Amino acid sequence: MSHNAHLLAAAALLATIKLGTTPLDHERVDGEAFLITNGSPIPFWDMARAVWAAAGSTKGTEHVNFSCMTRYFNIDKARTRLGYVPLVSLDEGIKITVKHFEEERAREGEKKSQ
């Protein structure tokens, strides 16, 4: 059964407290940052372009003149230490995220106009 990463992190922290011992460095959850993705490798700029497209932007990366690195985000630490399993596909995650930010922007606009 898969869960949201923040719930898995909370469960791991509580389990650590109950054990009464300090986990090894490669097992720690406290003080750690976790990259949460769906596990599908995608270059950074391809991800940015996909988000811009889902948001209806036609601008893209025309302002980026030079990119000298290819970067991928890796969720192995979240899988290993938290037991994280991705909940949605990359495309679905982008759609959900863009929809959330568009709804938040609309709510903020409504608040300002009142």
From TrEMBL:
Protein name: 3-beta hydroxysteroid dehydrogenase/isomerase domain-containing protein
Signal peptide: 1-20
Top-level taxonomic group: Eukaryota
Sorted UniProt keywords: Signal
Record-linked Gene3D superfamilies: NAD(P)-binding Rossmann-like Domain
InterPro entries: NAD(P)-bd_dom_sf (IPR036291)
Keyword Signal: yes
